[in-house]
Amino acid sequence: MFDRQSRYRDVPDVTVPDARGRMVLAKDVRVTPPVTGTFRHVVTAGDRLDQLAWQYYGRPLQFWRICDANPEFLSPLALVDQETIGTVRVPVAVSGDPPWAVLLAKLTATAGVDGVLVDDDTRLARRPRTVDGREVTVTVAEPDRAVVITFHRASVGVAALIEVIRAAGFTAGAPADAGQVGQPIVVPVAAGG
User: Fold this and answer.
1) Are 118 and 165 in contact (CB under 8 A)?
2) pLDDT at position 1
3) Are strands 85-93 and 134-152 parallel, antiparallel or unpaired?
4) Closest CA to 184 of 63, 41, 79
5) CA dist., res. 47 & res. 40, Å (int)
């Protein structure tokens, strides 16, 4: 029933009721094999699981070994930053009091935006100042503001989100994708499992 390379080949069959109450044959839950002898791969833009499996194992259909070694990711696409839902953090600046309500209204009205969080914090920075004719370095509190946007990549892009931010009266800094690019994932060396 399953190919000899299938990870489900050795999983026992069980009988379970279907939606109508009929007993049907199914596969039992597959226990994830222990991961030993691992190393890390740093995700780059455009990575695909089948290509990583080819690179590391010479067999593209062995991509599931990489998925098994990274159980914290619920979706295989999340491992290589290819999920349809993305999150981006955009630093923002504005003179005076920030018009957060305007920004939130514009972003939440944008097709494809799932959620918006405001990060309105303060950071301490060392700045030169002249005090009594002397140049000194002082520590000052400066605003550290950003918006974190969750969005559907197929519906709206980061460039369009930046334009919405600017239209609300903010200056937008360089966006930081909160995805997997640049982050390590585990690649098991052993081919067992």
Assistant:
1) no
2) 66
3) antiparallel
4) 41
5) 14
Q: Which of 139, 164, 143 is nearest to 94 (CA)?
A: 143
**Which three-class secondary structure string do you get for 33-87?**
CCCCCEEEEECCCCCCHHHHHHHHHCCHHHHHHHHHCCCCCCCHHHHCCCCCEEE
Tokens of 61: 């259909």
Q: How far is CA 100 from the centre of its chain?
A: 25
pLDDT, tens digit, 9 for 90 and up, residues 120-132: 999 999 999 998 9
68 vs 3: CA distance, rounded Å: 19
Structure tokens at 148: 């974190």
Q: Which of 115, 114, 140, 5 is nearest to 59 (CA)?
A: 5
CB 14 within 8 A of CB 29: no
Look up residue 192 and give its two tokens. Answer: 């067992």
Q: pTM for this structure? A: 0.62
Question: Chain-wide mean pLDDT for the chain?
Answer: 90
Helices H, strands E: what count in the chain? 5, 9
Rounded distance between C-alpha atoms, residue 38 and residue 57, angstroms: 13
Q: What is the pLDDT of residues 133-174, one digit of tens each?
A: 999 999 999 999 999 999 998 999 999 999 999 999 999 999
Residue 93: helix, strand or coil by DSSP? Answer: strand
- H or E stretch covering 24: strand 23-27
Q: How far apart are CA 114 and CA 106, in angstroms?
A: 13
Sign of CA dihedral 61, 62, 63, 64: positive
